[in-house]
Amino acid sequence: MTLPKKYLKNLCPNRCTTTSRRCLMGLFNTLHIFIIALYALGTVLFLTGIITSNAKLKRIAIWFAVIGFSLNTVDLGLILASDPLALSGGTFYFNILAWSVLAIYFFLWWRLRLEFLAITALPLALLLFVSSMALGGIRVIMPPQLTALFFGLHIGSLVLTLGALMMALGAGFAFIYYNRKLKTKAGLASMGSAVPSLDKFDTVNRWAVAVGFPLYTLGLFSTFFWYWIAPDKHFTWDIMKIGSLAVWFLYAFLFHQRIVLGWRGRKPAILAIWVFVGMCISLIHHTITFRVMP
Amino acid sequence: MNRQIILIGLNHRTASVDIRERFALTDIDNFEQGLMAHCPVLECMALSTCNRVEIIVVAKNNAEREVVDAVIQYWAAICKGKAELLWENTYNYSGLEAVKHVFTVASSLDSMVMGEPQILGQLKDAYRAAVTKGTAKTIVNRLLHKSFSVAKRIRTETAIASSAVSISFAAVELARKIFGDLKGTRAMLVGAGEMAELAATHLLRNGVQDVIIANRTLSRAKELADTLGGEPIQIENMSDRLPEVDIVISSTGSPVAVIKAKDVKAVLKRRKNKPMFFIDIAVPRDIDPDVNILDNVYLYDIDDLKEVVEDNMAQRHEEAAKALTVVDHETETFGNWLHSLNLQPTIVDMVEKTEDVAHRELRKTLKRIGPVDAVTRKALETLVLSVAHKSMHEPICFLKRRTQEEGAAERFIDLARRMFNLDDESIPAEAHLDRKNKTCSSQDISDLIEASKNKEQ
After folding, report:
1. Exposed e or buried b for every residue in A29-49, given b needs 16+ CB within 10 A?
2. Percent of chain A scored above 90 by pLDDT?
3. Which of B166, B280, B295, B301 to mutate against chain A (most A CBs within 10 Å)?
4. Contact residues on chain B for A200, CB-CB shorter than 8 A
5. Is the CB of residue A252 less than 8 Å away from at least one CB of chain B?
6. How far, in Å, CA of B244 to CA of B271, rounded?
């Protein structure tokens, strides 16, 4: 079983056709198939486990995800080791996004015993990883001022923010759904015994705001700062920056309400979902913009 | 030697409370030992709870009626009651039916509140007592150990015991769905009714840190606070203390609402929107229903809780169907073990018989060939025993396989015993119609073998 040729081609940033490159591509190809298979199996098993209330299936699914995550880490390492220019490829961004979603999920699993959020983490990781293969053709033309420090501040913090918001998205939907069930007295049986408490879902949301907002601020303003200090570039207001700033204001409002005024429960859950949607729109817009940038 | 498990009992379905009380065995020491002495049973164990009395005995297969009668007579005599009354109110099962019943009881499928785990603990106590008294042996031991594992399997594989089926437990479960771990949460009782006390007890048992008791009469609040280990306050001071508590259980006799939505809204502000769970078990209701509209506030009244309990009960009944499949499967497995227990003596008898034949033939041969040295004698002995054992291998395997088949065990064991004449029964005349009036001796068989050999040569 091999991937279509267009994906194989996309794996090689230099479109190289030498034997050694082919060997490396073969290795990547096999690794990617393994990762996709593990994430897909994990997703299917976890969803089946939820539907059938089978704890064993869910546990197996999580272990598939752990193995997939380990291979994903190896894959990222190999990509960077073989070609540092891969950082400018769409493959890399979506790949690391899938990785960060799972990394944050594992952290929540460890800290809050919140196995349930795999219902969001596993399908998202699968989707992002498969997207990373499909979007291999997208190459981001980097502005010259984007140095290694930029990657650390801008990309790193934004990827982690997005990962945290993805978890907040899952927790937010779960909170709204189960809050409604409790409010309407739908009965304990309809909630399932394995579903965590509303307080846990709210904690995920709180962390996504308390940690995510400073990270997003860092990621966003580091770009503005780089634009400001770069000798050959001038900061100008464009739709991309305005969009990102609009998301930042929404996030700042949520941060203020949550941390200062003590918002909890349904309202911050809804707002976190909107912040996530805003970030996604902004990300898609960025991708399109960078694609056409000279 | 076939053995039969027999179960004689009465429970909440077959007997009224006074009958159950009259024939309870909880305060009777050495009941099992007395039963063993007075009745034709090989093993026994008695379980006595407020809802059921059950006596499990192991007896010889052909003495079922006699055993049931003897046990009932003894039971009635010990409890100074009439045996007729017991006959009217008891049920009895034998064989696999009895096994199935024990598994059903252990898994709490036969309990008044299906899925409640208390019965398993009571069964374990009864078994421990029988082991101490020495009345539980091979079969009862195996049966009880198996029933514990069946109960565990059912609890793991089905959701029979996962849902609360009492008002107070439902309140605890709902609180868990809101707060998760109840450790560190605080509760308040508004009014000191019996039901509120029960709910508070369950909450405290499940991790609630402490409880404030607000009542109109402070003396009653103090009394309850001493029992629960809480803090008593006057009901007038309730509003000041509400921001401190996460769970409020209200059960006053007030005709109007004592907790209003606007008050709770103010409390929520002071609590920085930390969730609150209100349980209103008073009729007429103590808490304004609009409280439930507020974000992060959950209000359940007595009807809501009853509905939760009924839903859970229905869910338990659904799970019971799954559990019964497990019970059926495990009963079948236990039945196979029981059959194999019957097969074991037959195998031993068969092997002993062939060894006996081998030794006899060896003695004859040695007589014929005269004195031999010890090494040769040992070698010949090993040879004949080896031939005897190997010739038994296939029939034993065949029997083991066939006795695993449903309903085939007894037939094949009986056939084997008759084939090898293990019970030393005289062979009926019609058994060999072609050789009427002729007994079959080992000499005849030897002659026949010799003749066939000569013919071949």
Report:
1. bebbeebbebbbbbbbbbbeb
2. 28
3. B295
4. 180
5. no
6. 8
Q: Which residue has the tokens 């008294």?
A: B133
Contact between residue B224 and residue B215 where contact means Cβ atoms under 8 Å apart: yes
Q: Answer yes or no: B440 catalytic.
A: no
Q: What is the pLDDT of residues A27-50, one digit of tens each?
A: 667 888 888 899 999 999 988 888
Q: How confident is the model at residue A81 (pLDDT cuts 50, 70, 90)?
A: confident
Any idea what the Cα angle at residue B127 is, between residues B126 and B132, rounded to 5°?
100
Computed over every residue of chain A, the mean pLDDT equals 79
**Residue pair A133/A32 in contact by the 8 Å Cβ criterion:** yes
Per-residue pLDDT, averaged over B85-94, amounts to 92
Q: Tell me, rounded to whole angstroms, the distance of Cα A189 from its chain centroid.
A: 33
Q: Would the pLDDT of A92 be above 80? A: no
Cβ atoms of B390 and B355 closer than 8 Å: no
Residue ranges of B 168-227 with Cβ closer than 8 A to chain A: 170, 173-174, 176-181
Predicted local distance difference test score (pLDDT) of residue A142: 55
Question: Residue B251 — φ and ψ, nearest 5°?
Answer: -150, 50
Q: Distance (Å, rounded) from C-alpha B184 to C-alpha B246?
A: 10
Instruction: Return the beta strands (E) in A71-151 as ranges.
Output: none
Distance from CA of B296 to the nearest CA of A (A): 6
Contacts of A185 in chain B (CB under 8 A): 300, 304, 307-308
Strand pairing of B52-60 and B276-280?
unpaired
Torsion sign (Cα): B412, B418, B422, B423? positive
Residue A78 contacts residue A31 (beta carbons within 8 Å) = yes
Are the C-beta atoms of A62 and A118 separated by less than 8 Å? yes
Residues 6+ apart with CB under 8 A from B336: B404
Give every CB contact of residue B256 below 8 A, 6+ residues apart in sequence: B284
Contacts 24+ apart (CB under 8 A), B254-258: B254/B191, B254/B282, B254/B284, B254/B286, B255/B284, B256/B284, B257/B285, B257/B286, B257/B287, B257/B288, B258/B190, B258/B286, B258/B287
Measure the CA–CA gap between B104 and B360, rounded to whole angstroms: 52
For residue B215, count CB atoms less than 10 angstroms from its CB and return exposed for 0-12, middle for 13-18, buried for 19 or more.
buried
In contact, B174 and B223? CB cutoff 8 Å: no
Predicted local distance difference test score (pLDDT) of residue B425: 58
Of B25, B73, B84, give the one whose Cα is nearest residue B49: B25
Give the closest-approach CA distance of B288 to chain A in angstroms.
15
Contact list, B180 vs chain A (CB under 8 Å)? 196-197, 199-200
Provide the shortest C-alpha distance from residue B308 to chain A (in Å): 5
What is the percent of chain A where pLDDT is above 70?
Answer: 76
Provide DSSP, A263-288.
--THHHHHHHHHHHHHHHHHHHHHHH
Task: Please name every residue paired with B259 in a beta bridge, in sequence order, or none if there are none.
Answer: B287
Among the residue ranges A90-99, A261-270, B273-282, the one predicted with the least confidence is A90-99
Q: Which residue has the tokens 């001796």?
A: B441
In A, which residues are within 8 Å of B311 by CB distance? Answer: 187-190
Provide the 8-state DSSP code for B162: S
- Tell me whether residues A188 and B180 touch, CB distance under 8 A: no
Q: Judge whether A51 and A111 are in contact, CB under 8 Å.
A: no
How big is the A-B interface in CB pairs under 8 Å? 67
Q: Which of residues 181-200 of A touch B (CB under 8 A)?
A: 182-183, 185, 187-191, 193, 195-200
Considering B39, B50, B397, B440, which one is annotated as catalytic? B50
Rounded CA gap, A146 and A95, in Å?
20
